[in-house]
Write a structure and sequence with these properties.
- It holds the Pfam family HAMP.
- It catalyses: ATP + protein L-histidine = ADP + protein N-phospho-L-histidine.
- InterPro entries: HAMP_dom, HATPase_C_sf, HATPase_dom, His_kinase_dom, HisK_dim/P_dom, HisK_dim/P_sf, Sig_transdc_His_kin-like_C.
- Strand 3 and strand 4 form a beta hairpin.
- Helix content is 50%, strand content 14%.
- The strands form 3 sheets. The chain has a 5-stranded antiparallel beta sheet with strand order 2-1-5-4-3. Strands 7-9-10-12-11 form a 5-stranded mixed beta sheet.
- It is of the alpha+beta class.
Length: 537
């Protein structure tokens, strides 16, 4: 049963493949149709011309022979009759005329000595009669020509169809007085010959059309096979297989196209390899620089922490003249520390080494902890029901929320409203501020790295990486962050995360491949997720 179903599926797939190759928009079908149309036009034209020429030749030859014989019989036999013949004489003469080589029917019409019209037909009383002669022909035959014409009466003929049978009907009048003669000759043998010719020409046209379709199919296959190979190679190249090359044979245009494709693919592979090499070198430089900076930063941070404690103690051990400088050193050291940590995080995302450490998280509790750790409880209005659980990375969720809320507080102003809802297997977190909103020209760039909307603030506590890192953390969960302006005023950042963010690439990976001093380790100060305030506006 399985084999039967498999065979049926294979047959169906094969049929679909053939039909797809002959779809109405395919080049193959258009080539076949063009070849067929050209062949049909040529065959029909040639057949029509041949049929018309043969028809005219056959009818003209037959008609000429019959009319000559009839005219000769009228001169020889009907001309020897008296001016007022009897009906018997007409019958006898008509029979003699009908026995000529052409075997036509004859009707003689005359007037006897009493002036009565008498008829003589070669077929007897039930044979050829005057009613079988068209009235227009009778009128033309009996009309005498004006002028000095030596023949006052001419021979006239006409083709008629009676009960589906074609006939040639002719008539003339004996010169100098005498009976009027009419002739009728069946053209059925000639019609059968012409029908046979028409059938032969039709069959020849059909064979020509079939032959043209076969030739078109062969030509299309010859032309389209390289095009198909080129399409397959282009798709492979688009999928990233830059070593794809075409086999080149011949010297025609398609061969030139294949050579051009190979040269383009080779140049693209070289360019991509160079760019990848430079990108790897840049990432290594950033990573190495970040690691190298952490060693002196650790010592500097320890010293600045001591200085900061002295400043907070107000013991007077620090000269008031240098106190502003000390505070500047502490602030810039913290900023440099955050920048190095952000650069390391970005490097992990670029290298693809960032992994999730999943846990069952109560989203409301996690956001509350994030706000509480940064002393934002008075400035943030949280609207979230407890009990909304999700399989997320708590540290990365903390980084996302710290950047979004801190960004809203810095540029939008309090109160900042954070709402959490669950719908269709995903958690939706909206962070809205009450500021002036985000300019429309800035919206597409708020998540770009190192982007700062205000050129007047090139130097600030932010590095331009905060929202970019937040977006990367959302992506690694399989989620998304969008930025927009609320109709009621202010900016709205919406975070959407799946309730089960299991890593599809490596679900068994349970830890981040980080250094011992990585900001993701437990015990790290809350300052590691201080938002990048200059990022959004």
């Amino acid at each position: 049963m399985t084999e039967r179903h498999g065979g049926l599926r294979g047959w169906t797939a094969g049929r679909k493949g053939k039909l797809s190759r002959l779809r109405f928009t395919s080049l193959r079908l258009r080539l076949v149709m063009v070849f067929g149309a050209v062949a049909l036009t040529a065959a029909v034209s040639a057949s029509g011309i041949a049929y018309w020429l043969n028809r005219e030749a056959v009818l003209t030859r037959t008609q000429g022979a019959v009319l000559r014989d009839f005219e000769q019989e009228m001169q020889n036999r009907a001309g020897s009759l008296p001016e007022h013949p009897s009906q018997d004489e007409l019958l006898h003469t008509a029979g003699q005329m009908a026995n000529s080589s052409q075997r036509f029917s004859v009707l003689l019409v005359g007037a006897d000595v009493t002036g009565r019209t008498v008829y003589g037909s070669s077929g007897g009383l039930n044979g050829f009669s005057l009613e079988d002669v068209p009235a227009s022909l009778r009128t033309a035959v009996n009309k005498q020509q004006d002028g000095g014409d030596s023949s006052p009466y001419h021979l006239y003929w006409q083709r008629v169809v009676d009960d589906g049978t074609p006939y040639l009907v002719a008539g003339t009048k004996v010169i100098g007085g005498g009976p009027t003669g009419y002739m009728r000759k069946s053209l059925e043998p000639e019609a059968k010959d012409l029908n046979s010719l028409a059938w032969s020409l039709g069959i020849a046209t059909g064979l020509a059309l079939i032959g043209a379709a076969l030739l078109a199919q062969a030509a299309a296959t010859t032309v389209l096979k390289p095009v198909h190979r080129l399409g397959v190679a282009a798709r492979r190249l688009g999928e990233g297989r830059l070593d794809t090359r075409l086999r080149v044979s011949g010297t025609d245009e398609l061969a030139d196209l294949s050579r051009t494709f190979n040269r383009t693919a080779e140049a693209l592979e070289k360019r991509v390899a160079d760019m990848a090499s430079r990108d790897d070198a840049s990432r290594r430089f950033v990573a190495d620089m970040s690691h190298e900076l952490r060693t002196p930063l650790t010592a500097i941070t320890a010293v600045t922490e001591v200085l900061e404690e002295e400043l907070d103690a107000e013991s007077g051990s620090i000269d008031p003249m240098i106190e502003p400088a000390v505070r500047l050193v502490v602030s810039e050291t913290r900023r440099l520390n955050n920048l190095v940590e952000n650069l390391m995080e970005v490097t992990r995302f670029d290298a693809g080494t960032a992994r999730l450490v999943l846990d069952d998280v109560d989203v409301a509790d996690q956001i509350t902890a994030c706000i509480d750790a940064r002393a934002w409880l008075d400035a943030v209005d949280l609207d979230a029901e407890r009990g909304i659980h999700a399989q997320l990375d708590p540290r990365r969720l903390d980084v996302i929320m710290a950047n979004l809320i801190g960004n809203a507080l810095k540029h939008g102003g309090s109160p900042v409203r954070v709402s959490v809802t669950a719908a269709r297997d995903e958690v939706v977190i909206a962070v809205r501020d009450h500021g002036p909103g985000i300019p429309e020209e800035v919206l597409p760039h708020v998540f770009d790295r190192f982007y700062k909307a205000s050129a007047s603030r090139p130097r600030s506590e932010g590095s331009g990486l905060g929202l970019s890192i937040a977006l990367e953390n959302a992506h690694i969960h399989g989620g998304e962050i969008t930025a927009a302006n609320s109709p009621e005023g202010g900016a709205v950042f919406t975070l959407r995360l799946p309730q089960d963010a299991s890593d599809p690439d490596d679900p068994d990976e349970a830890v981040d491949p980080v250094d011992p001093g990585d900001p993701g380790e437990p015990g790290e100060k809350a300052a590691r997720s201080v938002p990048d305030e200059e990022k959004a506006r």
